[in-house]
Amino acid sequence: MECCRVLMIAIVALMLLFPVTDAWGIDGHDIVCNIAQSRLNEAAADIVQELLPKSAENDLGSVCSWADQVKFRYHWSSPLHYVNTPDVCNYNFERDCKDDNGEQGRCVAGAVQNYTKQLLTIGSNEGSSYNLTEALLFYSHFMGDIHQPLHAGFASDKGGNTIEVHWYTRKQNLHHIWDDNIIETAEERYYNSNVAGMIDAIQKNITTEWADQVKDWESCSYTDTTCADVIPRLLQIQIKRLVLCRYASEGIQAACDWAYKGAAEGSVLKDEYFLSRLPIVNTRLAQAGVRLAAILNHYFK
Ligand SMILES: *[C@@H]1O[C@H](CO)[C@@H](O)[C@H](O)[C@H]1NC(C)=O
Ligand SMILES: *[C@@H]1O[C@H](CO)[C@@H](O)[C@H](O)[C@H]1NC(C)=O
Ligand SMILES: *[C@@H]1O[C@H](CO)[C@@H](O)[C@H](O)[C@H]1NC(C)=O
């Protein structure tokens, strides 16, 4: 009996020491939503507070992975987390944004557009036909996903899911490395395994290192010449397609330049890959958070 109790305690202790991390993973989304919530104007912050479930205690980050948890219950939502190209490094809405049945718009870019449009109906009669809490949670999650380079990847390898590599000594697929492992390794190495430390470090760079670029990231959410007259036609679906084209285009470009490069089947990815890709991950997390907030701030002033 005594032996078993000792064993039990040892097992529990080990579980506490090495928690199963499923950290964009949980931490990636948490980072994006934390950055976003801290940048909201008063009106947008109020609306977010009102829409969040009470249990979230006004912490958007805590429910930013809700969309992953309901993937099986809401089976229809699983194609909305990504977009794949026919193995080319550019994105095209007509060609790429559809599900396996070929239904147009059913991809992550279409989903961001769908849920921003629903959020815009808040306070109107039409608004009552949507569950706007779900719209906020989906929108916040998909703004994160669309910025994860391999959520805009190649169709043939399902965004890196079928590419088996090693992350240091562990077997892993390439998609998972970009969802979780790069972030996890950064947290372990630089932030005491603490997501809050990583959020602070990215926030700091948003206000210093990247301050100039941040203005560009923000404006591309709704103005910017390349995003073409978004303001006057904001309420029309077609416009946001243009803007979102840019997010997804950036994604597939980063996937080609950084994620796929040097990561063929069977590769062993170590410091060289980690250290050169981490800045890309940090920047994409920052862009996602800044843009998530900028769109809400623009809608709700
Ligand atoms: C739009 O949102 C509705 C409500 O959640 C959902 O049923 C539909 O599948 C969504 N479509 C896209 C493309 O996101
Ligand atoms: C809206 O969605 C949330 C999350 O799924 C759910 O808890 C809530 O009951 C829904 N609200 C309504 C009015 O259906
Ligand atoms: C912040 O910027 C500095 C200087 O470019 C860089 O060394 C550091 O890795 C960056 N940190 C994050 C979290 O982006």
Provide an overview of this structure.
Pfam families: S1-P1_nuclease. Belongs to the nuclease type I family. Its EC number is 3.1.30.1. Monomer. This protein is mainly alpha-helical. The protein has a single domain, classed as P1 Nuclease. Helix content is 54%, strand content 5%. It has helices spanning 2-17, 26-38, 42-51, 66-69, 93-96, 108-119, 132-145, 174-190, 195-207, 211-219, 237-259, 271-299, and strands spanning 83-85, 152-154, 164-167, 170-173, 268-269. The strands form two sheets. The chain has a three-stranded mixed β-sheet. A two-stranded parallel ribbon has the order 1-2. Helix 8 crosses helix 12 (271-299). The protein is globular. 41% of the residues are buried. Residues 11-23 and 223-242 have low confidence and may be disordered. Bound molecules: 2-acetamido-2-deoxy-beta-D-glucopyranose (NAG) (3 copies).
State the major sheet. Answer: 3 strands, mixed
CATH topology: P1 Nuclease
Q: What is the count of β-strands?
A: 5
Q: Could you name the CATH homologous superfamily?
A: P1 Nuclease
Low-confidence stretches: 11-23, 223-242
Task: Give the bound compounds.
Answer: 2-acetamido-2-deoxy-beta-D-glucopyranose
Record the strand order, biggest sheet. 4-3-5
- Tell me the count of domains: 1
Strand content: 5-15%
